[in-house]
Structure formats: C-alpha cells, structure tokens
Amino acid sequence: MDREGFVQQVDRTAPKEVAESYLMELILRSMLQVVRRNEFGRPKRCKMHDLLREIGLSISEKEKFGVVYDGKVEIGECESHQARRLSIQTTKGDLQSYSSITRLRSLFVFVNGSVSFSNTLLSKFKLLRTLDLENAAIDVLPEELGTLFNLRYLNLRGTPMAELPKSIGELRNLELLDISETNIKELPSEVAKLQNLRHLNMWSKFIADIHNFELVRGMQVPFEISKLKKLQVMANIEAEGNIIKQLRSMTQVSRMGISNLKEADEQNMCSSIQNLKLLHHLCLMVNNETEFLRVDALRTPPPQLQKFFVWETRKCTALVLLTSKPNIFVVALV
C-alpha cells in the first residue's frame, strides 16, 4: 500500500498496479534485490545494496525528505534537518526527544527495547500520515492518538498491545490498520467510524502444531463493521453472532479470512461469499475438530477468486469443483 499517496493512477491503471511496475523496474535495473517471492513468483521482500542505500540516505537528508537516526550522531543533528520522515533505529526508551520535529509526515520505529509515548508527544505531530511501530515494545498508546487527523497508516503489528485507545475512532482519514500478532482480542466498536478504512489486518501468529485447529486465530469485530464501505482487506475475523450474514453487504472486499467457522454457518457463509464479486483471496478455518467445513453451497465461486485456503475439509465436496478451475490456487489443510 502507498502510505503517502506518492503513486497516482495512470490512465486506467490503478495506483497499486502502477506501484508494482515501478518496483519491477527497480529490480530489473538491479537497484533492488529480491529476497523472497510468493508462490506465484511475485516479489514479497527486497533489499538494497549497502552502497546504494548510503547514496539514497545522503540525498534524502539533503532534500529534507527523510532521515535515519541510528545512534551514530546526536539527536539534535536529526532535528536540525527538519525532515518530513524519520526512521528511529535506536533509542534509550524516550521518544519525547523528537518532539521538536513537528513537520513529520512519517515516523518509523525499529527498536527492540522498550519505548513509550508521552501523553503530549503525539499531539505535536499534527501532520503525521504514517505511524509504523511494527515489533516495537510499546504496550500502550495514549488517547492523544485521536488528534492525528491526517493519519492514513497505522502499523502496530507484533507489539505487545492488548487494546486500542477509544480515540481510534477519531482517525477519520485512516486507510490502513494493522494489529496482527498483538495481544488484542477484540476490535473496539469505535473502529466502525473509520469510513475511509481500506485495509484491516488482525490475524494472530501461526501456531506450530497445525493439528490443534488454531492455525490462525482471528479477532472479534463489532456488528457495525459492515458499514465500512471502502474496506477491501479484512483478515482475519472470528465467526461470531450474525457477522457472517453481514459480510454479504461488504461487496468491495477483495481479501478476507474467517476463523472459528462452524458447520451451521455453511449456508450463510456461502451466500455471503458468492455476493462478494471482487473477492480474490479467501481463507476459511474451523477451530474445532468436531466441525466439518463442507462449503457445499459454494459451487459458483466469485469470478475474481484466485487464492482459496481451507482448513479442515473432510467433507468438502465443493473443493473438487474449485480445484478444477485453472485460475484458482487452492490449499486444503486436512
């Protein structure tokens, strides 16, 4: 996802496809090296040669585009750049030292040790569009998070956080929220106010023993989540209450994962899935060995479906039909 809107639509080509073409050009020019590819051979992770990285950082600082703080210089030197993007790769635990860089558009924290936000720090970053705290040892975000009106991208993946502040609902421009692999079990109802939200990632860690039927654990979501009409990615949610029925109205969703499914959910689940015409990635899971996920009613899959992952398929007769379609990549875990 383009966090700051650098990539624009070209003619009828969507920004995502334009960005992918830029990435491939950088790879072909050997400016980036592919580290990992997905099952279709597409690049998933890249790295940059050390020399190119140093040149890039030098230009970035000169143009006030961004700066990296790695402890080799004083914090004051970073502040003097007044860069719009800051990557913190070492800290003594207090982020308050950076509060004077008020022009920040993006803040990345790559720190293994414990760090904390003061109640006033976030309120100083009024222009912040990207806040990336992936794997940082931050267990609490202050309610002042809601003052970041311009925030588009919030990444909390891998943090020990157990709950989101209630003010999350004030981030009306938020487009991506990633709370995967955290200690958060339930999404607060305030998230339903995020009318511009497009990507919602909230799956738990993969569990080593796949036979315990908890390969991936989803999250409980509020009933009102179906009101988010721009949501495209939602992975993973727990099948609780009437949420399965509500999914049928989320016709813009292209990627979805559902866990804790029961045999009794089959009819509603298949009915909802068939209504999601833009769906291209689907993952279905049960969390109990007594449940059988047959998906018999899913005989006409969504036309855009490319990837279909199923956990527990002992009675899945429809799976034979799906595997016969050459454009669908099916993984069945039994």
TrEMBL record:
Species this chain originates from: Hevea brasiliensis (Para rubber tree)
Keyword check for Repeat: yes
One annotated GO molecular function: oxidoreductase activity
Residue ranges occupied by any Disease resistance protein winged helix domain in the UniProt entry: 4-54
Protein name from the UniProt record: Uncharacterized protein
Domain (Disease resistance R13L4/SHOC-2-like LRR) ranges: 104-316
PANTHER family on file: LEUCINE-RICH REPEAT-CONTAINING PROTEIN 57, OS02G0478300 PROTEIN
Keywords from the UniProt entry: Repeat
